[in-house]
Amino acid sequence: MTPVELSRTVLHAVRRAVDEGELRVAALPERVLVAPPGPGGCGDYATNVALQLARPAGLPAQKVADVLRPYLLSAGGIGDVVVTGPGFLNISLRGTAPVDLVREVLRRGLRYGHGDALAGRVVRLNAAREVRAVVQIDAVARLLRSQGALVHAGCAGPLDAAWESVLGVRVDGVPDPVTPIHDDTAAAIDVRPVPAPADPLPLGRDAARWALLHPAPHDRPRLGDEHLVQRESNPLFRVRYAHARSRSLVRNAADLGFGGEPGPVEAQALLQALADHPRVLLGAATHRAPDRLARHLVTVADALLPLLPAVLPLGDEKPSAAHRARLALAEAAGTVLAGGLSLLGIDAPDHL
User: Fold this and answer.
1) Where would I find the Arginyl tRNA synthetase N-terminal domain in this sequence (predicted)?
2) What angle is formed at CA 277 by the lines to CA 150 and CA 114, rounded to 5 degrees?
């Protein structure tokens, strides 16, 4: 069960409690936040929905949590629910949750984490005629569309031809599928990051876009050759290298006659990063912050790299269930890296 699915499960439990008269709430929340437990918590995820509902329900948060607990326990995929602190619900998923997560990533492919949370929302993005602003608006539009929003991205003036040809920037576009936006109620948002201190074009498309998108919009980007070096000190290199290695392992495993099969793997940091991906995409879209996605991809890559040496059998060792499970997890992580890079407008080559 992914975080998005768990959020829907919690919201469904709230609706059932309201429908059966155990909670009296005039308006239900549109969505429920689930996140890794904080200090004093336990399990796989925690939610503060009971604290949100306490005042509208006229009950202490701990009482609301006690009401919701049996509804959550009856949901498929949830193994245990513990109430801690003032009313936090700590949720433990069933033992097959990591297996289900890897299967879900492989099933969705590059669209894992895409959703419809912003479906029906119309957004008009406006950028200054400045290279970082137009790269930012291009990435923000991609993120918003990945969550179902209808987006029109415009610029204060005509684009420099090199911004389009070298950096792959597209503005004044309409959402996919191509549908003109004629909605006077559309949210109008100005995208105004700190301008680029120099011309990023000499870096080329991928390094230039990363250099402009990886820092937060209010931070001054650096446009030096550090984005081109193929070393661990370069976050973009680590992300692309981790992806390329994952693809190489899939090819090498096929040469050895086996493929990936989701199964138990001791790689909690990587599994957590994959599970967080839908939440990160939604947050990056909602807050118009592609830097959140860029940093998340570094987290995924750094969690994947230690797993890679153990994926293939060594010497005369025969492929085992553990090798197949690690291969499936590596392939899933590579898929997340490729999908995330594509939303930033950056290529994810199979070979480096």
Assistant:
1) 4-93
2) 30
Q: pTM of the predicted model, to two decimals?
A: 0.74
Encode 87-107 in three state secondary structure.
Answer: CEEEEEECCCHHHHHHHHHHH
Q: What's the length of the chain?
A: 352
Segment 228-233 long-range contacts (CB within 8 Å, at least 24 positions apart): 228/203, 228/204, 230/352
Q: Please list, in sequence order, all residues whose beta carbon lies within 8 angstroms of the beta carbon of residue 177, skipping any fewer than 6 positions away.
A: none
Q: For the chain, what is the mean pLDDT?
A: 89
CB 118, CB 286: distance < 8 Å: yes
Q: Is 319 helix (H, G, I), strand (E, B) or coil?
A: coil
Number of Cα atoms under 13 Å in the Cβ half of residue 59? 18
Residue whose token pair is 């230039």:
208
148-166: pLDDT as tens digits: 999 999 888 888 899 999 9
Q: How many helices (H) and strands (E) does the chain have?
A: 11, 6
d(CA 241, CA 211): 17
Distance, in Å, from the CA atom of 189 to the CA atom of 181, rounded to the nearest integer, reads 15
Query: Which tens digit of pLDDT belongs to each residue from 54-66?
Result: 999 999 999 999 9
Gap between the Cα atoms of 172 and 155, Å rounded: 7
Q: For strand 122-127 and strand 150-155, is the pairing parallel, antiparallel, or unpaired?
A: parallel
Angle (CA) 40-304-249 rounded to 5° is 150
